[in-house]
Amino acid sequence: MQDNLLNILVTLMAINTATIAVILSKMYEISREHQKKVNEIFGATKSQMLLSIREQIALIGSGLILSILSKKIDWSWNPTIINISLEILLLTVFIYALFILYDTAKAVLEFYQ
Q1: Distance from C-alpha of 2 to C-alpha of 70, rounded to nearest angstrom
Q2: For residue 93, what are the domain limits?
Q3: Which residues contact residue 30 at a Cβ distance below 8 angstroms, ignoring those fewer than 6 apart?
Q4: What is the CA 56 to chain-centroid distance, rounded?
Q5: Are 56 and 13 in contact (CB under 8 A)?
């Protein structure tokens, strides 16, 4: 998993960004119908989208650091526990990235209902 995690995280971020673009286009459409600015109607939604992107960038950075650390073999203190802990953290990063994607997909479905 550590070998492909960064590729998967970048792919999930690309999917999330494309999904956010769909949501933003719908938000702009709704704001034009009501003749208001997007920030007036959807300010909180827009800030949550930006937070989602920031979280994914942080996950990519965390995944990179954890992958580098997990490739180190000669730990001075209990290498088995350290390697297992790093694998669990890598898995946690992956699961959190999937959760972000799920949250964005759920938002799309709610927007179009």
Answers
A1: 8
A2: 5-111
A3: 41, 42
A4: 3
A5: yes
pLDDT by residue, tens only, the chain of 113 residues: 667 888 999 999 999 999 888 888 888 888 888 888 878 888 888 888 889 999 999 999 999 998 888 887 777 777 788 888 888 999 999 999 999 989 888 877 877 66
Distance in angstroms (rounded) separating the CA atoms of residues 60 and 12:
10
CA separation for the pair 98, 104 (Å, rounded): 10
- What total number of domains does the chain contain? 1
Look up residue 91 and give its amino acid.
L
Nearest to 20 by CA among 113, 99, 104, 112: 104
3-state secondary structure of 1: coil
Pick from 89, 91, 20, 97: nearest CA to 60: 97
108 near 22, Cβ under 8 Å? yes
Contact between residue 65 and residue 6 where contact means Cβ atoms under 8 Å apart: no
> pTM above 0.70?
yes
- Extract the tokens encoding 7: 């590729």
